[in-house]
Amino acid sequence: MTIPVPPLRAQVRVDLPPLASCTLPNGLRVCVAHTPWSPTVELALALPTRAVAARVATVAVIGDVVVRRTDCRDGAGLAALLGRYGAAVRGAGDGTWCDLHASLAADDLPLVLGLVAEMVRSAPPDADAVGASVRRVRAAVSPLRAQPQIAVRQLLRQRLYGPDAPALVPSDEAYRAVTATEVAELWPVVVQPGLGCLVVAGPQDPDLVLAEVRRHFADWRAHPSPPVVGHQPTGARGVQVVVTPTSAQASLVLAAPAVSHDDPRHPALLLANCLFGGYFSARLSRVLREREGLVYRVDALLDEHVGDQWITLSADAPGAAVPLVLASLRGQLAGLASRPPRAAEVDAAREFMVGRSLIQLGTQAGIVAELRSALIRGHTPDRLSIMPAALREVSTAEVRAVAADLFDPDRFCGVVAGALDPRDNRGHPVGPPAPNAW
Q1: What CATH number belongs to 19-217?
Q2: Which residues of the chain are in CATH 3.30.830.10 domains?
Q3: Which helix (H) or strand (E) holds 255?
Q4: What is the rounded end-to-end Cα distance, in angstroms, of the chain?
Q5: Per-residue pLDDT tens for 216-242?
Q6: Which residues contact 294 (CB under 8 A, 6 or more apart)?
Q7: How far apart are the C-alpha atoms of 151 and 99, rounded to whole Å?
Q8: What is the tens place of the pLDDT at every residue in 334-375?
Q9: 238-418 is classed in which CATH architecture?
Q10: Considering only CA atoms, which of 100, 110, 69, 104 is closest in space to residue 88?
Q11: Whole-number Å distance between alpha carbons of 116 and 285
């Protein structure tokens, strides 16, 4: 007996918590969300780094060391003070953003805001602090670099933008080459408020929090940033094959240019991507994983490389199955035009996307993450509340048009890396995919 699932109640607008926002004279954009149901505060500070993306290893070290000491406190003293109040401050940097995150009790917000302001207004660290940070970052990224999905995405980025593209995860040699002199050179470029954003969510009155932010950050000095060096896509086509015999499986990733977040077709693209490979009932999951049993994992997402948006398909599979997986992926992409999405598919994807937005906005961390995402893209905070309504307004015809246009298989290029077994599960020779064959 099949029990019908009742339809979800129509949700045309997400009610955000009360917000207060401003832009300080130094260029720092600030947004405060009032979350009275929580006794804690979540804080995120995002500083752009694309202007120095070519030196991502140095940026990563800066992201780590900036939260470890200040001009007034050494590392041990700062850690002891934060520990006394049960506050955690974390930092990380890559080729796009240097991020600082803090979690703390609401009563301690003035203290922690002051400490974060101390961190970012301090002078560059000395050689000992930089050396310790280099060792920490190297240890943290070593297992990350070894993950097949990271390795194949790194290869994809080089295929999309050429060998000089900023590294997704720098090599160990790049980290070991970072010096205190390099950190000092980039410090005023990275650790400065211009074009950055600060998001706070907590139970305090937002206007009072804004006043506290102004008190601590208003005289944080901005410095001129070098122009962002653009990286033009190579226009590569086909699939590059990289055989790594020591791998236990094969990983593959394909990408095609997407539209920007400001493009009017973006809501339709979100739905097309979701129904194609963005959730558990998507076409790729039902066909490649459940019906054909070719992959361990398959999904589609909208990814970013050096500031550009890309439709990205990725999968993990046995090496012997790679030729069949590539053929099936191409068939499914072509099927978006020959077998266009049905209204029921679009509606299911729509409900999933709206529901995910509601879940994300149900926690302080989710609210901060979504507000940060809106601000760093130049949007106003209310974008979070209007996006579900925008998804509701997308028609099936619009999704079909975007799917046929942007998911054309001839627009995709990619990389396959791993153990490519020349025989299938029955011992029959299948041969590896030919280089650049797609």
Answers
A1: 3.30.830.10
A2: 19-217, 238-418
A3: strand 250-257
A4: 44
A5: 999 999 988 888 877 889 999 889 988
A6: 288, 317, 321, 324, 325, 328
A7: 23
A8: 999 999 999 999 999 999 998 888 888 889 999 999 999 999
A9: 2-Layer Sandwich (3.30)
A10: 104
A11: 44
